[in-house]
Please model this.
Amino acid sequence: MANFQIAPSILSADFARLGEEVDNVIKSGADVVHFDVMDNHYVPNLTIGPLVCEALRKHGVTADIDVHLMVKPVDRIIPDFAAAGATYITFHPEASEHVDRSLQLIQGEGCKSGLVFNPATPLDVLEWVIDKVDMILLMSVNPGFGGQSFIPATLDKLRQARKIIDASGRDIRLEVDGGVKVNNIKEIAEAGADMFVAGSAVFGARDESDANDYDTVLKAFREQLAQVK
Model:
């Protein structure tokens, strides 16, 4: 079975007790902490910056932190997130004047680099920079807000991206973000994804009697992934 990883998005977490929230999802079986960084410029929302990443590291979070930059420009903020403890830093090619340079900058700062493709963005740029990419993230919703529904056309795009990765012979993660639920994660995995961002599906599944318990939904994700052929 593929090495599937689940990356809850803290965009849907309770920010008043974020450290505890992250501790609890990791304890319940999540693999990666996903950061949705929005600037109210590239996308119509404003979220979090490097200080939050740094705070979680100081809190004691040791899991990989996957920073998805929905900002423009990107180069200025990359070193800040690297210094704050990011593991992966991904950005949208439309948000960089020089995609190759931005990828080099991420790797030069000691992080794993990746490109993010919106639903209507083709994968063409990968042909020229695949040697500098550690992750490909496909948006299965339009970026900017949590809680949106999965766009079905993403499945074909995942298959296309998986072919590109396999042909490259490189160890590249294929991540999907947006509308990932228990009832579709198996189909998404079978299309080629091996990392799954889930925000509202995880943090929105709190048991009202025990807000710390994320075991049930993460177990359900794992059970679906175990059926992938």
